[in-house]
Design goal:
single chain, 191 residues, alpha+beta, Glutaredoxin, four-stranded mixed beta sheet, 8 helices, 4 strands, elongated
């Protein structure tokens, strides 16, 4: 089994656990705290992932650090990842868990590439239009790339919708280069 599949399976278990304990939001925030600490503190990550450190020590530290912050079932889940030696997948499990939450709540993440920064009003309008277009709650992630010149590029999952000026210019150039011009354009006569 690949790490991605394992992380997805653990995330599905975590999602079921959160639903059974009426804690989707609490579990989501809790996983954000855990993953944030792993990302921001290399010593903590190394401590959890080093095989030379006893599992009981790792579990004790998890309990000490996260007991006041996390729901008890989530803390138990984290300790099980240590028992099963899957703690190095916690970041991937968190990502997969958030993907399940998005699916559950009907949210779609959209990468929006524009040439210039959008104002707040334009962002709200964009979010509203994307939600209507996709039929779900769109969460835009805006990137500014001046080299697209104008227009917008949308990425939803693996699908890209490219309405940029740069692409339109390339298409026009391609059409002009491949166009066949009639002889009369060059002044050729039939006589």
């Amino acid at each position: 089994m690949t790490n991605e599949t394992i992380a997805r399976n653990y995330a599905a278990t975590l999602f079921d656990l959160a639903q059974n304990h009426d804690g989707l939001d609490a579990f989501s925030q809790g996983m954000d705290v855990v993953v944030g600490l792993l990302d921001q503190n290399p010593k903590f990550k190394l401590f959890l992932e080093t095989p030379r450190i006893a599992d009981r020590d790792k579990k004790e530290l998890l309990k000490k650090v996260f007991s006041p912050l996390l729901p008890r079932p989530l803390l138990n889940f984290l300790q099980v990842t240590v028992d099963k030696r899957r703690q190095r997948l916690l970041t991937a499990i968190g990502e997969e868990f958030h993907a399940l939450l998005d699916e559950h709540f009907g949210r779609t993440h959209v990468t929006v590439t524009v040439a210039r920064t959008l104002g707040e009003g334009a962002m709200a309008d964009l979010s509203e239009k994307l939600s209507a277009l996709l039929g779900s709650d769109a969460i835009p992630h805006v990137r500014v790339k001046p080299d697209i010149l104008g227009g917008v590029q949308l990425r939803v999952g693996d699908t890209v919708y490219d309405g940029t000026l740069r692409r339109r210019i390339k298409q026009l150039r391609k059409q002009l280069v491949s166009a066949e011009l009639p002889d009369s354009v060059f002044g050729a006569s039939g006589s």
